[in-house]
Amino acid sequence: MSQRRNAGSRNKGPARGGISKRRTGPVRLDRDGDLDMDVAGGKSGAGRGRGAEKTGNAGRDVLKSAPQRGPLSGAGLQKAILRGMATGDAKVRGPREVGVDGVLKEMTGGKARGRDKQDHRLDQVSVRGLKQSKAASNPDGGLKDLLAFLERKATGPDTPAREAVRIRKSRTEGEAVIVSVRPEDVPKLLRISSYTFAGVPLTIEKYNGPETSGTGAAAPTESPQVVDIKQKMTSVLSRRYDPALKLLNLSALGHDEELVSMGLFQSVSTESKFFPALMKVCDTFFSSAQQKREAVHSVSLANNELPNVMSVTTLSQTFPDIQNLDLSHNKFKDLRAMENWRRRFPFLDHLVLTDNPLETQEPNYKESILKWYPTLRILNGQQVRSDEEVAAIAQKRANAVRGVLPLPVQAADFRDEAQIGENFIKQFFLGFDTDRAALANGYYDAKSQFSLSVNTSAPRAPQQGQDIKSQTWDAYIKKSRNLSKISHLPARMARVYTGPESILSCWTSLPATRHANITAEPLKWLVECHSLPGLPDPSGQSPGGVGGLIVMVHGEFDELNVATGQTIMTRSFDRTFVLGPGAGIGGIRVISDVLVLRAYGGNTAWLPEGTAPAQTTSDGQAQPSALTPTAPQIPENFAVAVPGKSEEQLQQELMLAEMSKRTNMTLEYSRMCLEQTGWNFDSALAAYESAKEMLPPNAFMQGI
Amino acid sequence: MADFQAVADQFVQFYYQTFDENRQNLATLYRDNSMLTFENTPIQGAAGIVEKLSSLPFQKVLHKWSTADAQPSSEGGGILVMVTGALLVDEEQKPMSYTQTFQLLPDGQGSYYVFNDIFRLVYPAA
């Protein structure tokens, strides 16, 4: 578990720091740093002429795997880089003695990797209007008041404290205040756009990166030093980028006079921050991963005296999709030097590791490298995997990543024996809905166990006819045996029900249910079944145990009001049964029964391909699938900005849409509600809450 | 007998921590007769299982498990563990809900290994 960490600490000490000018040693490098893809013998010549030759030869590899694809050509990138350069200072200045370290720190946000982790789950939203507001004259420019206002308004009344919107970070960028919040809070903030703060309506939008007005220079809040370093790095990058080969040549960085003159290699501290900062500058050139993929196919880090990839590890984050990587002429002693890049670069086609000590010190490294990089075709200029093999892997992957999900969704794996599992499931849930006593006595014996737990944090699928806020678990929570919440042993034991009587007493206290009919609505269910040996044999004849089945069921049920037969709400559940031979119905008994309840999550996760894929719109809102109740008719262009529609009308429509979505009221009733409260969303929602019991049925959209 | 709940508890914590940090290290938890069912792909044997887990198409992963429950299950002191939770992969910000059912068996040396591991996404993205 801590292998990687160990590798890291091993690498500390004198050999730390990566790209170095100080430890020059004999210069044996390709100053032009052509990506020497045919460098099998390790010759390291130099010169443009030879470079051209290579383009015709090994360059073919680069070009072959580098077809011109998207709209952003290499020339486009170069233009972007040059645009940045135009504002820069092309002259080489004397060494910076002070502040480089601090500047790099500012650029990389302190610890590059730590920050990445932290920001991983935060989204940014831009808020405009503070500068024009009355609060701008406050000592702090009104920022504190604004943040408090945003949190308060976005949270709304009646929200449990732990769901309150909290602004994790904020900064100003020109006129705008950029705030970081959890992704789920973004819609809440967007909803309060146009709310009036200190006399001025705020404009709240998703933040899409700094504005590139004219020069493309850094945002105004950055210190001049940062702007300066960024411009110089941009200049270095533009010089080192070959748009024809789509090659970013970062070889022999320690000998780059421009970089040296910036004082980047004067201390271990600046050295360690230099590369992450450089990658950060690279990131600013691209607005999407797609652009990056198309612009940079190859990277050379040759001739950098790297003892390992620690100092340059951010390359795998900035350019994860590169196909060609040259690491020749470095100081990798063994494979541990590359540990940080193990299984990174999932599309790596060609890797060069020649002229590293590991060639002699770890002669078998090639085997591991092949495992680490499943699409690697060429190692050190030699074909190590056939084109067909790589193509097969690519195909497999393409299938796997098809659709919007990072993981494929698959049909059930059902390995039943003699329909035992199938029959059990059909009877069980019918029995659970109609006659729990018969069920408990029919399938459970003195050693059978049942327990349930409630997953209160599972996401809820969009669903009509039911109010999101009334997701209560009162009937279940006292029996919930969630081991992450219940740690006291007696409390845990008290929540396992053993034997039919005990199990039945628990079931009887649970609300009445109606499960979807598995034969009529199979898509609402996912049932999996596997054989399971070594189960207890109640007859005691097989000391090694007997064979049985483990059955996993995922589905949904309606919770019913017994008096009226009405559905109170629909919930989802996951349930695992262990079935063994026994004296129960059909010769089987339930050995274990573990039930998990959660908010309704729909069935989109396991719908077979092509029936009704989960749709995700550009703003990340899940759309109801074809199997969830149909959406009501919404007027064309409703809540969409179109020419001729006033801003006020658009805002009102947005509020109407949101109101309708949250309350399930029709647009007509949503409008009545909002009009009565002067288009104050929070007040309208509060009014709805207090009046919802009295509303006529036609106030709501017709569900299910 | 060790308290099966404490075993389950420790196991779940260790499993997901290891999974998120370096899933190759999960190899120690499986044996040659272990069976992983990942979605609908069954794989038997520690080597194949770790290969499968390692080759899942993401680099970073974070499991946030919400519930865990356990019951003693088999003759030889096996433990059935059922977990539900959410996982985040790479830069994806929308968590995917999953359930995972483990059958743990004692390895005869005072410890446990994973005999069955059944993983399933139950809600694609919130």
UniProtKB/TrEMBL annotation, chain A:
GO cellular component: nuclear RNA export factor complex
Subcellular localization(s) per the UniProt record: Nucleus
GO biological process, one term: poly(A)+ mRNA export from nucleus
Chief place of localization: nucleus
Classification via Pfam families: LRR_NXF1-5, NXF_NTF2, TAP_C
Occurrences of domain TAP-C (ranges): 650-703
Stretches of the chain forming a coiled coil according to its record: none
Chain positions covered by the region annotation Disordered: 1-77
Keyword presence, Cytoplasm: yes
Domain NTF2 residue range list: 420-597
Top-level taxon of origin: Eukaryota
Classification via InterPro entries: LRR_dom_sf, NTF2-like_dom_sf, NTF2_dom, Nuclear_transport_factor_2_euk, NXF1/2/3/5-like_LRR, NXF_fam, TAP_C_dom, UBA-like_sf
GO molecular function annotations of the record: RNA binding
Keywords: Cytoplasm, Leucine-rich repeat, mRNA transport, Nucleus, Repeat, Transport
Annotated family: Belongs to the NXF family.
Protein's job: Involved in the export of mRNA from the nucleus to the cytoplasm.
Protein name: mRNA export factor MEX67
Organism: Xylona heveae (strain CBS 132557 / TC161)
From TrEMBL, chain B:
Keyword Nucleus listed: yes
GO biological process, one term: mRNA transport
Occurrences of domain NTF2 (ranges): 7-121
GO cellular-component term (any): cytoplasm
Annotated InterPro entries: NTF2, NTF2-like_dom_sf, NTF2_dom, Nuclear_transport_factor_2_euk
Keyword Ion transport: no
Subcellular location, record wording: Cytoplasm; Nucleus
Keyword vocabulary terms for this entry: Cytoplasm, Nucleus, Protein transport, Transport
Matches recorded under Gene3D superfamilies: 3.10.450.50
Pfam families the record matches: NTF2 (PF02136)
UniProt main location, coarse: cytoplasm
Function: Has a role in nuclear-cytoplasmic transport of proteins and mRNAs.
Protein name according to UniProt: Nuclear transport factor 2
Higher taxonomy: Eukaryota, Fungi, Dikarya, Ascomycota, Pezizomycotina
